[in-house]
Design a protein that fits this description.
The protein is of the alpha+beta class. Helix content is 25%, strand content 34%. The strands form 3 sheets. The chain has a 6-stranded mixed sheet with strand order 1-3-4-5-6-7, covered by helices on one side. A two-stranded antiparallel sheet has the order 2-8.
Length: 194
């Protein structure tokens, strides 16, 4: 089982956690790769994703060829990191474990893949296979950014809930993102207060 935890620090302009794999060498039997970000890669990813720190980032990726020259990518990621609270900027430690699947196809481009995701959001994610290389490190890094809480909060962090409600927004005490109401309802609420 190939390991990939001794990668040199990323070059300027290159992806922070690049681990390209040649698709032409893949067969119908699964190939598994284990990745572990080193200190320099974790620091670079932390800057990219605006984290206070990325203390651990590991992934297991299984690739196998499918009919029609497609490649199935099954990934698992585990990470420990610290984000800044969106209310207080205090550190918010977090840990995630996530699984995901991508299908790389040589017969589509980025625009087609994006449209397929919009048309069928419940389907497996289709990615274009450009050339012969799949950067499994960049793919797991992108999944890390998707899996992170976009609105991290320290326990007990208060937002301006009263003003948010006056503007016609709703939020819960756990810090879920605000959801907009009808703007005319917000105007009516403000008018009642005056």
């Amino acid at each position: 089982m190939p390991a990939a935890d001794q990668t040199p620090s990323p070059l300027e302009g290159a992806p922070e956690f690049s681990h390209p794999i040649s698709a032409s060498r893949l067969g119908f039997k699964p190939s598994t790769y284990r990745l572990r970000a080193n200190e320099a890669e974790r620091a670079a990813l932390a800057r990219r994703f605006d984290l206070i720190s990325l203390d651990r980032f590991e992934a297991t990726v299984t690739l196998k060829r499918e009919p029609g020259d497609a490649v199935r990518f099954d990934g698992e990621i585990e990470a420990e990191f610290v984000q800044a609270c969106v209310v207080t900027t205090d550190p918010v430690p977090a840990r995630i474990a996530d699984r995901f699947t991508l299908i790389y196809r040589p017969d589509i481009d980025e625009a087609t893949a994006d449209q397929m995701a919009l048309d069928n959001p419940e389907d497996e994610i289709i990615e274009p296979l450009i050339g012969d290389s799949i950067d499994i490190g960049e793919a797991v890094a992108q999944q890390l950014s998707v899996a992170m809480d976009p609105y991290p909060r320290v326990v007990g962090a208060q937002s301006s809930t009263a003003s948010a409600k006056a503007l016609g927004e709703e939020g819960d005490e756990a810090g879920a993102p605000m959801a907009r109401r009808n703007p005319f309802d917000a105007l009516a609420a403000l008018k009642k207060q005056s």
